[in-house]
Amino acid sequence: METYRFDVVVVGAGIAGASAAAALAADRRVAVLEAEAIAGYHTTGRSAAMWIQNYGPPDARVLTRLSRAFLVNPPGGFAEQPLVSPRAILFVARAGQERELAQMLAEGEGLREASVAEARAMVPALRADYIVAAALEEHAFDIDVAALHQGFLRQARARGAVLALSSRVVGFRRSGGQWLIETETPQARFQAPIVVNAAGAWGDVVAEMAGAAKLGLQPCRRTGVIINPAPWHVADWPVVHDVAHNWYVRPEARTRLMVTPADETPVPPHDVQPEEYDIALGIHRMQEALAINVQRVERAWAGLRTFTPDRSFAIGWDGAVEGFFWCVGQGGCGIQTSPAAGRLVADLITERDPGAAAEALPRLDPRRFGSANRQTV
Ligand SMILES: Cc1cc2nc3c(=O)[nH]c(=O)nc-3n(C[C@H](O)[C@H](O)[C@H](O)COP(=O)(O)OP(=O)(O)OC[C@H]3O[C@@H](n4cnc5c(N)ncnc54)[C@H](O)[C@@H]3O)c2cc1C
Asked: Cys-Cys with 326: which of 18, 161, 218, 314 at CB 3.0–4.6 Å?
C-alpha cells in the first residue's frame, strides 16, 4: 500500500472543501478527498445560486459581506466569465407580516422600503390582494456556482493541491502527531498532521470516524422546481422572497422561474431527492402571491442544507481532538460565504490574523458546543 504525505487533508470537495483547499494550498501541501466521482455532486451542485446580504445568521452575514469583493472582482485567471451578475431581491409581506418587514428594514444592510406600486411594476404578476409592503435589496447577485467552484478547484491544483475523486474516507488513525487516513481505495492511504472536515451533511459521520464528538449537525431537505412562467417575461425580475422565508421565486436562464417552498425537512445525510408534496407546496405558495399559471413542472431537485444546533457555522479547531478542524454547518449560505470562509480556514490553520473575519469568530468556533455536552462516539 502506498502512503501519500501532505500537510493538510481536506475531506469533501464541495464549495467548503474547495475554497479551503485553494486558500490553504498557497503555503501548505494539500490533498482533497472526495467520496463521489465528481466534485459538487451534493449540496454545492443543488443550490439557488444567490448572494443576499440580508440572509442567514450574523456570522454568515459577516462572511457574506467579506466575500463580495472576491466575487465581483476575482483574481486574474480564476474564472473565464464573471462570477456574479446583478439581481435584486424583493422581500414581500402579505397582511399580518408587516411587523416582520419593518424589523427587517430596521436591522438590514443595504435595504430600502419599496412601495406596493413599485413592487408590482417590477413584478407585474404580483397579486394586488396579496402584497401589502415590500423591501428591496438592490445590490444582490446571481452567482455562477459552477464557475466559482471550478475556480477554487483550479486554483488549488495550480498551487500544487491534489484532488482525489471517488475517494470516500472510511477510517482515521492518529499516531505520532499524524493522521493516517484510509479511503475506499485499498491501494492508497493518506497521511497529514491536520484534517479539515468539509464533508457537509456528513460532517458528524466523518467526525465520529476520527473519534471527535459530534456537533449535532442536522441536514435539512430543500426543494427547487423549474417552471415556465409564460406569458410573463421574467428575465429582469428580482428574486421575489417571502419576508417570513416560506417561499421564494428566482428567474432562471432568462425564461424560466425557480420556485421553492423553502422547505426545511430534517433528514439523515443521503443523496436526497424531491418529494411530490414539497413540489406542490412550492407551487401553491407561489400562486397565492403571483398570478402564474403552471402547466407542468419542467424539473425538480432537492439538496441538503446542513445546520449546527444554533444555526451558525462551525469553522475552527475541534479543541478535544488534536489536528481536527471543522468547516461545516453552512446551512443556506455556503456559496455566498465561500471566498471569506475558505480564507478564514487557511488563516486559522496557518495562524495568520483573520482580519475583519475575526468579528465572527466567537459565533463560528466549534468549541462553543462544548465537547463535554456533545454526543460522544
Ligand atoms: C435548494 C438549495 C438552495 C440553496 N441556495 C443557496 C444560495 O442561494 N446561496 C448560498 O450561498 N447557498 C445556498 N445553498 C446552500 C449551499 O448550497 C450550501 O451551504 C453549500 O453548498 C454547502 O457546501 P459543502 O461543501 O459544505 O457541502 P457539499 O457540497 O455537500 O460537499 C460536501 C462533500 O463532502 C463529501 N463527503 C462526505 N463524506 C465524505 C467522506 N467520508 N469522504 C470523502 N468525501 C465525503 C460529499 O460527497 C460532498 O461532495 C442552497 C442549498 C440548497 C439545497
From this structure: 314
